[in-house]
Each structure stands twice: as C-alpha cells, then as structure tokens.
Design a protein that fits this description.
Distance between the termini: 98 Å
Oligomer: single chain
Strand order of the largest sheet: 3-4-5
Number of strands: 9
Largest sheet: 3 strands, antiparallel
Structural class: mainly alpha
Length: 825
C-alpha cells in the first residue's frame, strides 16, 4: 500500500507540474475539451490518492495506538501455548494421550516460554532476532518422531508460529512509517498549482455534493503545504512559529471556503426557484373543490418542481454536514460552521446586489411614484430572500429570520458608515469597519455614487425639495403644484419594509450628516459675508431697534434698508434654510416611523429606554439651574411646552428637551459621558430622539445672528401667503431661486437657532414680536381708528407660533398677539 501511494504521488506531481512547465516533453496539440478531460483525470487521481492516504493513515494510526495491546495479547497467547506444550511432554497434562513423558522436550518448551516472556518492544532488533530463532526452532522440532506422529501437537506448534509471526508484524509497526507516509504524500509544490483545479472542484461539487467526502481528504493532503515554510522556523525554536502557522492555516481555510462556497450559491439558486414557485405559480387551495377540478388544483407539475428544488437543497446541505471536524494546520474547521459562514457570505452578496440595483434612480428626477415604486419592488425581492432563508432553516440547522436580520444589519450599517465617511475628517476604512467580517466580507462601494444609501437620501432630498414640492403638515407629506404626493408616510413605511429599522436609522444618520455639513458651510460663508458694509449695516440696525421691548420709529424703513444691505447674506440663508429644513422634516418623518415600529415590535424595550432616559437626564441636570433646564430666558418668558399637534413634527417630551444640555454637561466631565452617548444611540434607533432639538455644530455663534435671522424671516414671509386649507405658508410665486414654504422655513430657522445659545432664540422671537407691534401701531396710527390688523402682522404671528412649536417652547405673550391679530391659537 505504501508503494502504491508513492507511485500515485510521483505520477500526480509530474502531471500537475508539467502543465505549468515551459519546456514540455509531451505534444501540446490536444484540443481544449481534451485538455479539460485530462485535468479532470488529474483531479480524480488527486482525490483518490488523497482518500487512499487518509484511510491508510487512519488505519496505521489505529494500529500504532493499539500496538502495545496487540503485542501483549499475542505474547500471552504464545507463552501460554508453549507452556501447555511443556506440560504435555511432562506427562501431567493431556492434549491427547501420550505413551511416556519426554523430559528434554518438556524442558525445551519451558525454556522457549521463558524466552517469549522476556521479549520487549523497546529492543526492536534483539527482539526480532529472538522471534526469528524461535520460529525456526519450532519448525525444526516437528521433525522429532514423537511430535511428527502427533497431529494435535503439530497444530499447536503451527498456531504458536503464527502468533510469533503476528508479533513480528506488530513489532514492525513503527512511527517512522507514518513519517515516511507524510514525506511521500507531500504537496508543498502545489501552493500555486492547486488554484488551477479550483473551478473543477466546484463543478464536481455542483454535480455531486457528496464528493465533498473525498475533497475533505484532499484538503487534509494540502496541509502538507505548511511543512515547507514552517520547517526552519520550527528547527530554530522561533517564537514566530505560532503566528506563521496561523497565517498559512488561515490561507488554507480561505481556500477551502472558496471551494465550498459553491454549495451556498447552489442553495440560493435552488431557493430562488422555490420562492418563485410558491409565490407565482402555486395557487392557494380553496375550501371546497369540485371533484372534476381536483387534478387541476393538485398542480402536480409545479409541486414536482418544488419537491425537486427542495430535495436539491437537502442534498447540498447533507453533503457538507456529513463532513467531520477537520484540523487544517492550527485551525479547527467545523463543517456546520463552514456551511453557515458560506451561507452568510452568499447572503451578504445577494443583499448587497439587491440593494445596489434596487435603489438606483434615473438622475434624481423626483417624479411622483418613482421612489415608492422602486421601494415596493425592492421590498418584494428582499421578502423573497427572507422567505427562502426561513424555508431552509431546518436543513441548515439555523434560524433563517435571525440570519436575514443579521445580514441586513451588517450590510446597511456598513454602507451607512461608508457614506458618513465623506463628512468626517478621520475616515473609517472598509477593513476597520465594525460591520466587516473575514468570514462574510462586504464589498465596499467604489465611489459615493455606488452607495445605495447615498442614492436613497439624494432621491428623498430631491423629491422633497422646495423647488418641486410644498410640505403639508396636515398630511405630513410633500405635494407638488398639481397636488400629487411625492413623499409621505407611505414612503417611509416602504423604506422600513425594504430596509428594516436599520435602513430607517441609516437614513436618519445620513440626513444628520448632510445637515451638519451644510451648517458648517453656512457658518463659514456667513462669517466671510458679515464684514465691511454688511457688518456695519447690521450693527446700525441693531442699535436702532434695541432694546427689543421698545417700539422704534420707522421700523419698516429700518428693516428694508438693512435687508437691502444683507442681500448676499439672505441668499445664503435661503439656500441653507431650504436644505436644512427639508432634511430636518425628513428626519422627523423617519423618527416617527421608527417610533411606530418600536412601539409595535418592542414595546418593552421602548418603555425601558424611556425610563432610563428620564433617570439619566434627571441625574445629569442636578447641577443645572431651573432656567437652563426648562429653556427659560431672562428677556422674555419662554418655558417648555406640551407635545405639538399630530400634524407637526414630533417634539420631544420635557425630559427629552434637556438631553442636549445634559450631553454638554456630561461631555465636560467624566460622569455619564459614555452612558449618554450609548443611550442616545438607542433612543435614535427607537425613534425617541427629536432632530430639531439636536446640536450639530460647535462653532462660535455669529454676532447679531438673531437680527440677521429676523431680517431674513421678514423678507421671506413677504414672499409667502398663508393657505388656511393647507395650514401653512406657500410661495406666492415659484419664480424665486430658492422658494420656501412655511414649515420648511420654520424647521430650518429653528435648527439654526438651536446651534446657538438659548438667548439667541429668545432675542429672535422678541425681534419678530417687535416688528408685529410696529406694524399694528402703524396701521392704527394711519387709519386713526380700530381696523383689522395688517395681513403681514398676522403672518408673522402665525410663524412665531410655528417656531415656538418646533423649538419646543412656549411664549407667554403669544396668545395676546394672536388675539390682537385675529389668529387662532
């Protein structure tokens, strides 16, 4: 057998290396099919040789382990038989009746028994010679007349010689034979050559999944590749032996996974047929069926194909699960874990492909229904993947739903992380991502345009842009000029169905980074614009109108002259407010959908988070004054308010209002900093965060920011008209470069104010109230009698109410202004 193994390995080595030789000894005129068949023959020889070596090594190791036991048993049998023969010739024990005793034979057999008793396996050469002499002596003693005529005695002697021969064979079982077998079966030459046969191995597995049993022996044979690079390291007793062993073992395991990856691929291919048959071809059986239509409702052909596809899945999984746990180098490979990792790898590839192709839009057209249609198709496709994984749960012995959720969490989280890299100074490489895995790696996007999260966010921003749509708070949706809904609650519901809660949270985070980037850009631009004449004009306006509790003369003229000097500033603010406001409203809708999902799917977790949040905020605000905790400002009375009506973006509860102040307090000390950050992540994932209350910029506040925002607001409101039926302001004309609606304007201004101190918000509202008083005073002074307040004043009061609502604040004087201007509360 060892000679056969040696001949097979010689032929195998010559054939495999000859195919890569430059100077071939064989003619190279064969056709491509003939070459492929030759490669198949070489692969079959490799697999059969590896299987023979595996069985031979396993048999030899079992013999080597049982060597001492077999030696002891054979030695006892030989000694016993020789002792019986000695007793027989003493005349005291009868094998058969003996005529007279033979003392010399009796003593001779007794001496042989003593010699057998003294044999030891530790002295191989001496013991072998002694057994050879004993066998020769037992053969010669048969020539004696007294023994030659006794057939039973001759049988005893033959059995004794056979036992001694077996002892010699047991003695020849040496560990050196195993070393010889390892040297003969060495495949260190195949480190690169074996890659030529990878596709052939995969093709054989695709054709016959049970051939993995022979491939297991082939993989064990490839372990000899590790001997060559580790030989000298081991001889030198280097401490790098373990790390080098781990490296080459990992490379070998990666090769095994690459070969066996065809099984998960075939499983998913069969599952696609299963899902297609179940969802498209099989009809649901009615409660009552007419006997004549029974054959039609039986649907034998699709059910037969369904059974064939299911059987294919079971055969594929059974083949790899029948493999035993294998030690490849220093890494133990479990076939069950290997199958699970392969399924995870294929699932990640399928999910990435589906998301990248499903969320692809034609130039961000923002057409009505295009985004929803793409999300519906993607949700149906991913639902099929989820159903297929649940279908094979029993075959692969793992939870299909959990596998799908883990895969979606990793893929969506990875692409969100890579998209957010474009907004960060310190970027996270794909290899360093916490969502990346060596067992199931995720292919990173080549560019930002190849990221489906980026395309989804851009499409949302494009569809909800103020150039195309107006946000209607009564419906929480964006409508175009023709009344068609472009983005609404249905859109975010579809995002949740297609991408899950992880996709909604990824959209929420990405929009947050977009807002933070835009705010930083606006801060830099405004700081560059508010210099020279613009800065002087703003200061003159501030000197003229302050204190804000007064009633300056010629208020309208002061506002118009200051606004004219700040034209460039207003253009930048209009663009920033439009984009930031739209993004914040989208984040609010996303948070609302996450909140509904958490209440439905994990009510206990949501309640726990709320309780923990209350406790943490109470603890962190112990040293904060009551005015700061409630958002109270010294100049005007502002305090926390109750939750807004359902049509407005969801405002945080009172305990949530103080989360930003608590975060700042925790950041300055080590107390609770990590806890607040971790809790905030869970709150955002559960939809408990309020985006309008989030601080996204730590830059120093601009001087006179409240006056600049007030002037911008007044000039913008002059271009808007209030629509009672819609409950918001709409552009009087769509010809403006950056048209705004009332809700978007309020959300954008609130976000800008939130980045500064609370006093800025207080002064901003006071400046708007001052202008309302000036308009009412001017109207009454001009008419000379009580008249209806001007429409401009009523619009400003309505807008102040919207800002207080989104800023989660209450103005004590606001009801008075509403009463004067005839605006409902």
């Amino acid at each position: 057998l060892l000679h056969c193994v040696r001949e097979c390995n010689v032929a195998l080595r010559w054939l495999m290396l000859h195919r890569r030789a430059k100077a071939r000894k064989l003619p190279d005129k064969d056709s491509a099919p003939k070459k492929e068949s030759d490669q198949q023959a070489v692969l079959v020889l490799l697999m059969n040789t590896a299987q023979l070596e595996y069985l031979l090594r396993k048999l030899f190791e079992s013999l080597l382990d049982a060597k001492e036991d077999m030696w002891a048993r054979s030695k006892a049998v030989a000694e016993e038989r020789l002792t019986e023969l000695a007793d027989f010739f003493s005349g005291e024990r009868a094998l058969t009746r003996v005529e007279e005793a033979n003392k010399p034979l009796k003593e001779w057999f007794a001496s042989l028994a003593a010699q057998v008793r003294s044999l030891h396996t530790s002295e191989l050469t001496a013991t072998g010679r002694k057994m050879h002499h004993l066998i020769t002596a037992l053969s010669e003693v048969e020539q004696f007349h007294q023994i030659e005529s006794a057939l039973q005695t001759k049988q005893f002697l033959a059995d004794t010689r056979a036992t001694l021969h077996r002892m010699m064979r047991v003695l020849n079982i040496r560990d050196g034979t195993r070393v010889t077998l390892s040297v003969v079966s060495d495949m260190s030459y195949a480190w690169e050559v074996i890659n030529d046969y990878t596709e052939l191995m995969r093709a054989r597995i695709h054709k016959d999944p049970f051939c993995v049993m022979k491939l297991r022996a082939t993989f064990l044979k490839l372990v000899s590749i590790l001997d060559s690079p580790l030989n000298r390291i081991n001889q030198a007793n280097s401490k790098d032996f373990e790390s080098v062993s781990q490296y080459y073992s990992s490379a070998l395991v990666a090769y095994v996974q690459r070969v066996l990856q065809v099984i998960p691929q075939d499983i998913f291919a069969a599952l696609r047929d299963v899902v297609r048959i179940q969802t498209l071809e099989l009809k649901e059986l009615p409660v009552k069926v007419v006997r004549a239509e029974l054959r039609v409702w039986a649907q034998l052909e699709p059910r037969h194909r369904l059974a064939a596809a299911t059987h294919r899945v079971s055969v594929l999984t059974e083949g790899v699960l029948n493999m035993q746990t294998t030690l490849l180098g220093v890494i133990k490979v479990d076939p069950k874990e290997l199958l699970h990792n392969g399924i995870r790898r294929e699932l990640v590839r399928q999910l990435t492909l589906a998301l990248q192709m499903g969320l692809s839009f034609r130039g961000s057209s923002g057409k009505a229904g295009e985004l929803d249609g793409a999300l519906v198709a993607l949700a149906q496709q991913l639902e099929g993947v989820q159903l297929s994984l649940e279908y094979i749960s029993d075959y692969v012995k793992m939870c299909g739903l959990r596998l799908y959720q883990e895969g979606m969490h990793r893929v969506v989280g990875f692409f969100v992380e890579q998209e957010c890299n474009s907004f960060l100074k310190t970027r996270i490489s794909p290899e360093q991502s916490r969502y990346q895995s060596t067992a199931a790696p995720i292919a990173p996007p080549a560019t930002a345009a190849d990221n489906f999260i980026s395309r989804l966010v851009r499409e949302l921003l494009s569809a909800a842009s103020t150039r195309k749509a107006v946000y209607i708070p009564l419906e929480s949706a964006w409508h175009d000029s023709q009344g068609r809904q472009l983005v609404g609650a249905r859109t975010f519901e579809l995002i949740g169905l297609a991408l899950g809660s992880e996709g909604l949270r990824g959209t929420y985070l990405t929009l947050g980074f977009v807002i933070a980037s835009r705010l930083a850009r606006c801060h830099r631009t405004l700081r560059a614009l508010l210099v020279g004449e613009a800065r002087a004009a703003l200061n003159r306006y501030a000197d003229a109108v302050e204190p804000l509790s007064s009633l300056p003369e010629r208020q309208a003229k002061l506002v118009s002259s200051a606004a004219a000097a700040l034209t460039k500033v207003n253009v930048e603010l209009a663009e920033t407010v439009a984009r930031v406001g739209t993004a914040q409203l989208l984040r609010a809708q996303t948070a609302r959908r996450l909140s509904l999902s958490s209440m439905r799917d994990s009510a206990l977790l949501r309640a726990t988070l709320e309780t923990v949040n209350v406790s943490v905020v109470s603890d962190l605000t112990c040293g904060v004054s009551a005015d700061e905790a409630e958002g109270h400002a010294p100049e005007t009375a502002l305090s926390s308010t109750a939750s807004p009506p359902p049509e407005a973006p969801t405002a945080a509860p009172t305990w949530q209002t103080a989360i930003a102040a608590a975060t700042e307090a925790a950041a300055s000390t080590t107390r609770g900093g990590a806890l607040v950050g971790e809790l905030r992540r869970f709150l955002e994932a559960s939809g408990l965060g309020n985006p309008l209350q989030q601080v996204m910029s730590t830059a120093e506040a601009l001087p006179q920011l409240h006056h600049a925002l007030a002037l911008f607001t007044l000039s913008t409101l002059a271009k808007l008209s209030y629509a009672p039926a819609l409950g918001t302001f709409t552009p009087a004309s769509r010809s403006a470069e950056e048209p705004l609606d009332g809700v978007t304007l309020a959300a954008g201004v609130t976000t800008l104010l939130r980045q500064a101190h609370i006093d800025v918000t207080t002064k901003y509202i006071a400046a708007l109230q001052q202008h309302v008083r000036a308009l009412v005073h001017l109207s009454s002074a001009t008419q000379g009698r009580a008249t209806e307040p001007p429409i401009e004043a009523a619009n400003i009061v309505r807008f102040i109410g919207m800002v207080c609502e989104y800023a989660d604040a209450r103005c004590e004087q606001l009801p008075l202004y509403q009463c004067v201007c005839g605006v409902g509360g």
